[in-house]
Amino acid sequence: MSRREVTFTKEQIAAYAEASGDRNPIHLDDDFARTVGLPGVIAHGMLQMGLMATVAAEAAGGPDKLRRLYCRFAGMVVPGDTVTFTAGPLAPGRLDLKAVNQMGEAVLTKSVAEYG
Fold it and tell me: Would you say 85 and 6 are in contact if contact means Cβ atoms under 8 Å apart?
């Protein structure tokens, strides 16, 4: 099983916004995020999925072994949240993936990777 624990920060989220080109203000501006009903800035779903893919690749034996990754964005991640990403065997050629915050709530669900 592979596992990684990440505590998200505003700086990390801003760096991802710059690197990805996704500068949506819900990821960068607390005041704007609140005007659309969010608690403040939230982490990009694709940032979370990228971290999950890294953990899945480790469990699969390397990034060249990873063939497909599925996940559903199920919960918001805000600065200060600690998310634990895990990947473990599900069936031959398949990994069960989980991403759970510090309160035990899934932030990614229906998450599976195929490798081979």
Answer: yes
Quick one: pLDDT band at residue 103, thresholds 50, 70, 90?
very high
Structure tokens at 22: 């996704």
63 falls in which pLDDT band (50, 70, 90)?
Answer: very high
Q: pLDDT tens-digit profile of 13-27?
A: 999 999 999 999 999
Q: For the whole prediction, is pTM greater than 0.85?
A: yes
Q: What is the DSSP string of 2-26?
A: EEEEEE--HHHHHHHHHHH----GG
* Token pair 């779903």 in the structure block, residue: 45
The rounded distance, in Å, linking the Cα atoms of 111 and 65 is: 17
Phi, psi of 54 (to 5 degrees): -65, -45
How many beta carbons lie within 10 A of that of residue 80, not counting itself? 11
**Most distant CA pair in the chain: distance in Å?**
47
Q: Which domains does the chain have, with CATH numbers?
A: 2-115 (3.10.129.10)
